[in-house]
Give the backbone structure.
Amino acid sequence: MVDVKSLDKRCQQILVCLAMNKEMGFNQLYRTLEKMNYDITKPTLSRHLDHLIEQKILVKKKVGKQRINYKIVDWNVDKPALDNKELSEMREFIDNHIKGHELFKLLSAEDKANIVTLVIMITSLEQLEVAVSSILNPENAFSRQLELLLMERILGDYKSWLLQECRENKKEVGKQLLQALISRQNRFFEEISNFNC
């Protein structure tokens, strides 16, 4: 079984796209990566697809006379990498996330700081859950790692949006965001200190 975290960033991005779409042709995969704001060229995509095939993570499937689709290898034959429910939830989450940037801009500095800290906490909890789940159910480790990649991607976006907001509105918004983040951090420290560990 391959450890998804051992792959480079480009390979991980490709796997996230393929996990959400079962199988895709080269151009469809390229357009999807672009839509998700992954900066990748066609030659780079081709090299990484070849690498993933060599690693036996992906397979090529000929469709018709010329078209070739790529899909993730199913290590557990009884269960695909992600089932249909997981796929539809991931697609819906990504669609909402892509729309979310415009909504994020409209939020107050405190709400932005709250969202980012919540996404950080959720991602950290997801990392721990995936680690424990991989130990208890190694047959599901690959699909859980793919889900984690998606969460980490979204966390990165929220952080970028927050920093972009600071760059664009340095004095006003930057100070408000910093104050909101410090306030949120202090609340966490207070909660932790209540445990007397």
User: Anything to note?
Assistant: The helical segments are 9-21, 26-35, 42-54, 84-106, 109-136, 141-168, 172-193. DSSP finds seven helices and three strands in the chain. The longest strand covers residues 58-63. The chain has two domains: 4-72, 84-193.
